[in-house]
Design a protein that fits this description.
Layout: H1 3-8, E1 14-18, E2 27-30, E3 44-49, E4 52-62, E5 81-82, H2 91-103, H3 108-115, E6 128-135, H4 142-147, H5 156-167, E7 171-173, H6 174-180, H7 186-193, E8 197-204, H8 224-238, E9 244-250, H9 256-269, E10 273-277, H10 285-295, E11 299-302, H11 308-319, E12 325-328, E13 340-346, H12 363-374, E14 377-382, H13 387-394, E15 399-403, E16 415-419, H14 420-427, H15 435-446, E17 450-454, E18 461-466, E19 483-485, E20 490-492, E21 499-501, E22 514-519, H16 521-531, E23 537-540, H17 550-559, E24 565-568, E25 581-586, H18 600-612, E26 623-628, H19 634-641, H20 644-657, E27 665-673, H21 676-693, E28 700-712, E29 715-724, H22 727-743, E30 751-755
Parallel strand pairs: 9-14, 9-15, 10-12, 10-13, 11-12, 13-14, 16-26, 17-24, 17-25, 23-24, 25-26
Antiparallel strand pairs: 1-2, 1-4, 3-4, 3-5, 6-7, 6-8, 18-22, 19-20, 20-21, 27-29, 27-30, 28-29
Helix pairs in contact: 2-3, 2-12, 8-9, 18-19, 19-20, 21-22
This protein binds adenosine-5'-diphosphate and zinc ion (2 copies).
The site of adenosine-5'-diphosphate (ADP) has 15 residues, from helix 9.
Length: 761
């Protein structure tokens, strides 16, 4: 609250707070006298809740208790503390989180918590503050400073301090001066008393890129297609406070990033701020440095690989208006930029924009909402737009911009399909790597070029099968087979991390004939290392890249050609630009095609197209070899030709036939509990409430039925699926049904609602 507002309006005696709990309501507290001056909308508050204290957020302030709140004043509890001097949540983010919580049938308090950098409540991320010293008056001329001190000549030490400060541009850390001038604090204190220097507390930002050597800025002349796309975005930016959405559909290497960078610069020139969202893995150190080189300290980078402290520092620079461009992964969509003009969502189809735990949200869609609430421009960019986004652009919701060709006419690598059924026949047994791929690797290596081998499965073998009794070894907490990891001789659950020593005999029948099925990255990397001892191979997956910075280092080494071949999961599939990579091999990518999932064809198409885009990005032409058991599948045929339009035409028919998005809105409701009967009871209550609320039969309701992962982390999972032709009626009916189910005794803590689920697992 500004000072004048505080004087005019009566101070708030009551606050409505959103709390990070799964309850669809806010809570009212009394504000003690001493805190009324400080509390504002968006302040974080320490609040008593049941037997605990929680951090909540002020979402409504009242000088008297409004009648419609329907609370008993005598029962109200006091706010314990106001945690911020200045609210962390801006009015815009308050509105945006309220909107998204409603859109996703989620909880405002949880959404607010998710909008802040992780760990903001912990002591550890307090800003580092250090004493610093600044020269007063004009820097550089000692004659000047002496003329201000005619009374007593300066000592030698005092002169030395002033010289040091002058030489370092007028400002230094207090401790650095003590060290470099080899002195105690007294000459500094005297100089400060005489008004020649100022001693103050400086916030020291932990700049994650401080040691980076910044690359040269290059001046690129845009192609006519790039220019046309940029002009369209820029003229939308010139229209004051008008929402507009674009879909920028450009093949990999068509120069989308250049368009983004120039559009962001235009937004800054107009005095507005800009945001760019990138998928989880794509924010490489190389790209971050490039942005730093272009935008300097105007850009703040919010990367999940930063430490909590670094992330918080970058976030605060945005909050204070010192950084006007925010680049980051999913949660950066809530960055507190003021006066936002442009939101870019790169690789908008990417699944990592989806938050997979409560509060569920998709950062792409929140980005579109934020732009429309703020009157800003949003650009969704992709080589393989999501079905929904392409459909929306056809329906006129986004203006469609296309970059059909690669820069400098570089050809797109055509994929070759290797039919693994033929390979099996030739070899007379199951082999993981075909001769075609092995020869390709050998040739590429001998030309001094580099290779990427992609396999979407980590570990050594996918599961262990007993040949005697046919049992597979499953996790004790989940309905999932355990994966063999050879390095630590363990069977591991990829969902809950349950691990047991690898058995020598079958746990069911004690037979010794255990059979390890389905190669993972560890296995493939081993096989390749044996075949090609001279090739420098790095394996990239969640097992080898467990620590912050490891992935960065491997990517830097690969870019510098200290590594010849990367073998890994989708971590290496996207976003990277390695000009010397001329062969990409894809092993077992079609595992996904067998899954009961509405998006498996789309995902397979996207993955292959993206990974093919990694090959031949420099001047040398590239090859892509895909090993598959389903060479006739349309997702693979169109991916081989890099034919997006063909794929879209085929896939959209299937979506329409099965009443899937973009034609129908989906909601998945999971009822989870350790006790199966209890979960089922809640599911049945909810189903009855849904039927009552859906009397007019707007929705199709499926279930309750066991989810395809029917047990995870020791909980049973029962699923109800809703399909609706209208988002609004879905939300209305769902709200009524949830309230009704609660009234009828359903345990709401066991019920998880996900709107627009990415998969139905
Ligand atoms: P995308 O984001 O579509 O995959 P990039 O923007 O990364 O493509 O561009 C691919 C490569 O082409 C980059 O190395 C980039 O510097 C270069 N590039 C982009 N636009 C031009 C241009 N107009 N002229 C020359 N090189 C360009
Ligand atoms: Zn057995
Ligand atoms: Zn498990």
């Amino acid at each position: 609250m500004s000072e004048s507002a505080a004087k005019e309006s009566p101070l708030p005696a009551f606050v409505e707070a959103a709390l990070p709990v799964p309850l669809r309501r806010s809570f009212t507290y009394r504000v003690p006298e001493s805190m009324r001056e400080r509390i504002e909308l968006g302040s974080r508050l320490k609040l008593p809740f049941g037997k605990r204290n929680l951090t909540g957020y002020a979402v409504g302030l009242h000088s008297t208790l409004p009648r419609d709140l329907d609370v008993d004043e005598s029962k109200l509890k006091d706010v314990i503390a106001v945690l911020d001097d200045e609210p962390l949540i801006t009015p815009e983010i308050l509105k945006l989180t309220q909107w998204t919580a409603d859109y996703y049938a989620s909880f405002w308090g949880e959404m607010l918590k998710a909008s802040l950098p992780a760990g903001i409540n912990s002591e550890k991320v307090r800003p580092k503050r250090r004493k610093a010293v600044r020269l007063l008056g004009s820097v550089g001329s000692l004659a000047d400073t002496e003329s201000k001190a005619p009374d007593k000549p300066l000592t030698l030490k005092q002169h030395e301090v002033l010289d040091l400060l002058t030489a370092s541009g007028g400002q230094m850390l207090f401790t650095d001066i003590l060290e470099q001038a080899n002195t105690n604090a007294s000459p500094l204190n005297t100089l400060a008393k005489r008004g020649l220097i100022e001693i103050f507390i400086d916030d020291v930002f932990r700049d994650p890129l401080r040691r980076a050597d910044l690359p040269e800025l290059n001046s690129i002349i845009l192609t006519p297609e790039q220019q046309a796309a940029l002009d369209a975005v820029n003229s939308a930016l010139d229209a004051p406070n008008a929402y507009k959405g674009f879909l920028l559909h450009g093949v990999t290497g068509s120069g989308k990033t250049e368009v983004y960078i120039r559009a962001m610069r235009h937004a800054l020139d107009e005095g507005r701020s800009a945001m760019m969202l990138v998928p989880e893995i794509a924010l490489t150190p190389v790209f971050s440095r490039r942005l730093r080189a272009i935008f300097g300290t105007d850009v703040a980078i919010l990367h999940s690989n930063l430490s909590a402290g670094e992330r918080y520092d970058e976030w605060r620079r945005i909050r204070r208006g010192e950084a006007r461009i925010a680049i980051g992964t999913r949660s950066a969509v809530f960055a507190p930029l003021e006066n936002i003009g442009l939101i870019i969502v790169d690789e908008e189809h990417d699944a990592s924009y989806r938050q997979h735990e409560s509060p569920f949200y998709n950062a792409r869609d929140v980005g579109v909402m934020r732009a429309s609430l703020a009157g800003a421009v949003v650009v969704l960019g992709s080589a393989t737009p999501a079905m929904e986004s392409f459909y929306n652009s056809q329906a006129g919701k986004y203006e469609y911009l296309r970059l059909p060709e690669r820069i400098e006419g570089r050809s797109l690598a055509k994929a070759e399909l290797i039919d693994m059924r033929e390979v099996f026949k030739r070899a007379g047994k199951d082999v993981a790597l075909s001769d075609e791929l092995l020869e390709g690797i050998d040739q590429t290596y001998h030309k001094g070029e580099q290779v990427i081998v992609l396999l979407n499965r980590r570990g050594f073998s996918q599961f262990v099968l007993c040949r005697e009794c046919g049992e597979t070894i499953k996790c004790k907490n989940c309905d999932i087979t355990l994966t063999f990891h050879r390095r630590d001789a363990k069977l591991v659950c990829h969902y809950c991390n349950y691990r047991i020593p690898s058995p020598k005999t079958c746990p069911s029948c004690e037979s010794e004939f255990l059979y390890f099925v389905g190669e993972g990255t560890e296995n493939i990397a081993d096989q390749l290392a044996k075949k090609f001892p001279q090739i420098r191979i790095a394996r990239v997956d969640r097992d080898t890249m467990a620590h912050k910075g490891e992935l960065d280092q491997v990517l830097l080494d690969f870019a510098a050609h200290r590594i010849d071949m990367l073998v890994g999961t989708q971590m290496i599939a996207k976003g990277h630009d390695f000009p010397n990579v001329t062969l990409v091999g894809v092993v077992g990518v079609d595992i996904g095609l067998g899954l009961p999932d509405l998006r498996s064809a789309e995902r397979t198409f996207q993955l292959i197209t993206q990974v093919a885009g990694r090959s031949g990005r420099g001047e040398k032409p590239g090859r892509v070899l895909i090993q598959t058991y389903y060479p006739e599948h349309y997702a693979l045929r169109f991916a081989r030709e890099q034919d997006y339009d063909g794929f879209y035409r085929e896939e959209i028919k299937f979506r329409e036939r099965l009443a899937y998005p973009p034609f129908f809105v989906l909601a998945s409701i999971l009822i989870k509990h350790r006790d199966h009967a209890y979960a089922m009871r809640n599911a049945n209550i909810l189903r009855r409430s849904l039927d009552v609320a859906n009397a007019a039969r707007h929705l199709r309701i499926l279930g309750p039925a066991p989810a395809s992962l029917s047990r995870l982390k020791n909980e049973y999972r029962i699923q109800i699926i809703l399909k609706s032709p209208s988002r609004r009626s879905l939300r209305e009916i769902l709200d009524i049904a949830l309230a009704d189910a609660e009234q009828n005794g359903a345990d709401m803590r066991s019920i998880y609602v996900e709107i627009d689920p990415v998969n139905l697992m």
